[in-house]
Amino acid sequence: MRIAAKQGNGASGKPAAKSGGKPAYGNRASAGTKPAYGSPSSDGSKRGNSAGTGIGSQASGGSGSGAGGRASGKPNAYGKSAPGARPAQSGKPAAGQAAGRPSAGSAAARSGAAAQPPRSAKPTSAAERIAAKASKSGGEAPRPRRRKVDATAREVALNVLAGVDEGGAYSNLLLNRSLQQAELSPADTGLATELVYGTIARQATLDYFLDRFIKSGVKRLNPWVRALLRMSLYQIRYLDRIPPHAAVNEAVEIAKKRGHEGIASMINGVLRSILREGEALTLPQDLPTAERIALEHSHPLWLVERWIAQYGEETAEAVCAANNQPPKVSIRVNPLRVERDELLRELEAEGREARASELSPQGIVVESGGNMANDGLYRDGRYSIQDESSMLVAEALDPQPGMSVLDCCAAPGGKTAHIAEKMGDKGRIVANDLHEHKQKLIQEQTERLGLTSVESSVGDALALKDRYEPASFDRVLLDAPCSGFGVIRRKPDLRWAKTPEDAASIAKLQRQMLNAVSGLVKPGGILVYSTCTIEREENQRAVAEFLRDHAEFVDEPFEVPALENQPQVGGAGVQILPNQFGSDGFYIARLRRRG
Q: Which residues are known catalytic residues?
């Protein structure tokens, strides 16, 4: 049975934002757009890398490896994109321990409500044990032994969702390791990945519907029961190619295996009641605009209200809708080894669908063809995996052969490598990062691409002014830590993890970093400031304050032909929104030091 929600016009009388074209793999509900996810890693607050390797995700600025996202826009058997790579993120504390199995005789167990497990209760599967360990270790699951685990795609997804919900584990880390241990088929890996990221992204909408059928409310259920209901409703509502009855039956079997008949009966009753509602299961039509957008597109209300204030209702809704769209796979040509037209022909010869990027002169968008990091062309250094928007950073920096360049927050090295390529690998590029272990990521990139002009530096960007002489670099790039609100489509749990206080805190750090590194720019040189967020406080306002306090710098616009017909929000720099090109939301400002 198909369950669809009517597109709510809300108080504004405006239709919901359209996804822009025919869905690649149809969604079940008309309210909201087709989901697909994958996310960059995070090094605490900054967006990270992507390679789309293994089972992971492509992100905004470089390459790496991992598991858990989508690297291709090609539909799979479940009506969604095939998996790509979802690299690691870190920094979130655990909130507790992963869900245990409730006592069979307790009232809580019979109702599915949260209950303290008995002392003898232990995780019953290896994947579940990973979730439990993750919650005890600050959100990062311990690296499991590569031992095959007999678990289905839905069981793996459920364990991850429960670990994220109760234990505060990061979905990408826990999914990565669970998939490695489960050794599922590619199709089942894709399903598990879709269930994890899709359920997390659509959480608010799913909870709204579930609350109509659960007297105590979904939030009072045991975490694994709550996760199972969310995951099952996600299949019923959003995945066309999974029959609803199959989703229900699988949920009941999992409940019997993990809980007992009482919980299984409750889950069966809730899900079958939802099926009986059918087309009548709709979202309310009379909500205030911000509340409607937040519910329909599953975003926190505070974030929707913030974007409406910054961009207006129509654009804010379009951004929210875009955040639930599949991330595109894009690659950056290495011009030291191949021209873009030649690489397009090589990809076509491999059976891949690809086209030239409209945003970046060195970019290619890959429409289908599988994991780009497993390709021999990638291993041979003919391209890197990078989001289109972030490719514009090196274009704005405009480095020339023989120059000295400082990349202040370089890991994982995608933009650093792009800079070296544009310089013909002639000159000096200092790739600095706060974390020593991340220098390996930069080294791997440069070695694969055959670049020799990059040198490593480990340290706090705030202290670079003490390490290098004033006015010693022709070009300085500050790709600053940020709230990451431009990459929510790749990191769906980000929308639930951040708070208004987080955004304010990171904005303060960004201003400190701009002030600290600006003195390293030579007279006549260029400082580029970039983020992967769409927050004006972190972007235009940060740059405006910097220019107010540093009369020696001026805003220097740079041309992006694809943006000529796109509305801009005003202020210094270029702001790309997630709904404009299907790329990440990104901000770039080019500031020239007066000569």
A: 532
